[in-house]
Write a structure and sequence with these properties.
It is a single chain. By secondary structure, the protein is α+β, with helices and mostly antiparallel strands. The protein is 38% helix and 9% strand. It contains 17 helices and 15 strands. Strands 2, 4, 5, 8, 9 and 10 form a six-stranded mixed sheet that branches. Strands 12-11-15-14-13 form a five-stranded mixed sheet. A four-stranded antiparallel sheet has the order 1-3-7-6, with no helix packed on it. A hairpin with a 3-residue loop joins β8 (98-104) and β9. α14 packs parallel to α17. The N and C termini lie far apart (62 Å). Bound molecules: ligand 9MR (2 copies). One ligand 9MR is lined by residues 184-185, 187, 347-348, 453-454, 560, 564, 566.
Length: 591
């Protein structure tokens, strides 16, 4: 063998050797958990390895074996929810735009992710578009719905007044028309209380970022009509809500529903009789709050929708008055069923405490009309603690609106406001305290009480709270914690799922959603967020891996307690993903 050939072989050997060093082929694993959509160039970037280990990690471009960034795993972190240990791979310093994977020798390779500005615009827009897929009393055409197109169903123009809702003007069995709106969730019913917080969240997003939404299109039939798609979509449900008010007295029916849940059938095959049932104070107040906000928001679109804003304000005032005359009409389904037939066993959205609904309605009416009397009629701080907003506790919705309009309000509200800002920042500090000790570094993990039915919405709503804290103080730490909650929802969590259908590599495929389950299409309708981990496991499905708070999730259609979807869960996802995308795509500050 010639000397040169030997040398040649030697170098080839070296080359091969160093290649294998660099690239021992790693298999994709969900043990590495990260936001499966991606990251912003100038923001924190963190992956969590779900086992205790030591060593290095490195990034490679998708499809290449080059090591373009490497670092050391740090930790271990110990979960206060499960006691399990995790390791942190922090690659925040890597700012290159592109598509990458994260490798941990000995563990494997992550799902691919992207680094770019506006990285969440796609998932945010799909989450908004999912409301279009929830529309009822209309067909969804292929042009807008793609393979999920479907025929008209649930025209809801022959809805019966249930015995519980009978009045002199509308006796039992009266037929009214209550078309449109969105299906609440995986079921086919419509509930005013839950609709209120959903439309309130979407309109608050608009009010917080009006310029951005002038241009954002979600590809719906109304796109291009001169009104932001976010508002067109919301109006679809508002128009239905208006039909839930009894014009004879201003009261609002609690829900429009079948007596029992329909089977897992297509919308057009779900044809059981529909009813409006008992009026309730919670429905009247939620309705009043939403309609007062609608009047304010749609006041700017008088040319497009003549008279709409004014009509909504009148509706809000009438509902407010009804609620004042009927301050304590609780929706107690069990009691109702003891008195009336047919018995109604669909979702109840009940609850005994109406103070928060009253604060919310009073605040929205006040901010829209600037009539101090509304604010003066409520006890503004019924409890020292602030809470994360949810369908049963909407007080924070009121506080958000006051904070949003702080600069424009009169002395009456200013008294409340000084205090509110202080309380609010203290609340946000409480939400994030100890986050750095958590296994997945998300504020969500700080409190085991966050793990309820619809826990992903607790996480998203908490993220919204942190966005307000950021906007109040200018302190970026709150924004980064809000981003950590979004990372959590999109894959950096104890289940390894990105909880949004169609967005990520490991996503829910078998959501408890009648249209997705019955359409014969493998992929569920995209942009829907699953309820998420819920140790209550009320559905008793066999698939839960264990009963740990943050792992009590099963991607199984039987699991309505962890794998259903709902409008009041999707709305905060829409808010959080867009708000983060808007705020994080701003260029970094110089210096
Ligand atoms: O499908 C229903 C879902 O939308 C509700 O959230 C859930 C809880 O109220 O109930 C589901 O319906 C189930 C019912 O409660 C019990 N029988 C099986 C039904 C469908 O799985
Ligand atoms: O989101 C609701 C959750 O807070 C309740 O614990 C649960 C049981 O009452 O109901 C959830 O709401 C469901 C509603 O009752 C019917 N439509 C589906 C909703 C999401 O599961």
């Amino acid at each position: 063998m010639s000397k040169t050939l030997v040398l040649h072989l030697f170098f080839i050997g070296l080359l091969l050797q160093s290649c294998t060093d660099q690239t021992e082929p790693l298999t994709q694993t969900d043990t590495i958990r990260l936001n499966q959509i991606g990251f912003y160039p100038y923001a924190p970037k963190i992956a969590i390895v779900a086992v205790e280990t030591i060593g290095d990690f490195y990034l490679s471009p998708v499809g290449s074996e080059e090591k373009i960034f490497s670092g050391k795993l740090t930790g271990p972190q110990t979960s206060n929810l499960s006691g399990k240990q995790t390791m942190i791979a922090d690659f925040s310093d890597f700012q290159q735009v592109g598509k990458f994977v994260l490798n941990v020798p000995g563990i494997g390779q992550s799902y691919p992710f992207e680094i770019k500005t506006k990285v969440h615009e796609g998932v945010a827009t799909a989450a908004l578009k999912s409301f279009y897929f929830q529309r009822m009393s209309t067909g969804l055409s292929e042009k807008y719905a793609g393979k999920w197109h479907r025929p008209l169903a649930h025209s809801d123009d022959q809805v019966m007044v249930h015995a519980s809702a009978a009045t002199k003007e509308r006796p039992e069995g009266t037929i009214i028309s209550s078309p449109g709106g969105w299906y609440d969730a995986g079921d086919y019913n419509k509930y005013v209380v839950n609709s209120s917080i959903a439309v309130g969240t979407l309109m608050s997003l608009y009010e917080d970022f009006p310029d951005y939404f002038q241009k954002l299109e979600s590809d719906i039939p109304e796109s291009g009509n001169g009104v932001p798609d976010l508002l067109d979509e919301t109006r679809w449900n508002l128009l239905w809500m208006l039909t839930m008010q009894d014009p004879n007295d201003g009261g609002v029916y609690h829900k429009c529903t079948t007596a029992e849940f329909e089977g897992m059938v297509k919308p057009e095959e779900a044809t059981a009789q529909r009813y409006v049932v008992q009026k309730s104070t919670a429905a009247a107040l939620g309705f009043a709050a939403s309609m007062a906000q609608t009047a304010r928001v749609f006041g700017a679109f008088e040319n497009e929708f003549p008279g709409f804003a004014e009509k909504c304000l009148e509706a809000a005032k009438a509902a407010w008055q009804w609620a004042n005359e009927n301050p304590n009409v609780i929706y107690d389904q069990q009691k109702m069923n003891e008195q009336f037939e047919p018995k109604v066993v669909t979702g109840d959205y009940g609850g005994n405490d109406l103070k928060d609904e009253k604060i919310w309605a009073a605040t929205e009416l006040y901010v829209t009309t600037r009539d101090d009397a509304y604010l003066q009629s409520v006890e503004f701080y019924p409890s020292e603690n602030l809470t994360i907003q949810n369908w049963g506790d909407v007080r924070t919705m009121a506080y958000f609106t006051l904070l949003r309009y702080a600069d424009k309000l009169s002395p009456t509200s200013l008294g409340i406001l000084a205090d509110l800002k202080k309380r609010y920042v203290a609340f946000a500090d409480g939400l994030v305290e100890k986050t750095n000790q958590q296994a997945y570094l998300a504020p969500m993990e700080n409190d085991v009480k966050n793990y309820v039915w619809g826990s992903t919405s607790v996480c998203a709503n908490q993220g919204i709270s942190l966005i307000y804290a950021y906007r109040l103080t200018g302190d970026k730490k709150y924004l980064n914690y809000a981003l950590a909650d979004l990372d959590y929802l999109l894959g950096r969590n104890a289940t390894g799922y990105s909880f949004v259908t169609g967005f990520g590599n490991k996503t829910p495929l078998h959501i408890h959603h009648r249209p997705s389950e019955s359409d014969g299409i493998d992929d569920p309708i995209p942009g829907l967020i699953a309820g998420g981990p819920n140790p209550g496991q009320q559905d008793r499905c066999p698939g839960y891996p264990n009963d740990l708070p943050d792992e009590s999730y099963t991607d199984d259609v039987c699991s309505y307690a962890s794998n259903e979807i709902a409008i009041n869960w999707n709305a905060p996802l829409v808010y959080l993903a867009f708000a983060i995308d808007i705020l994080k795509s701003e260029p970094p500050l110089k210096g």
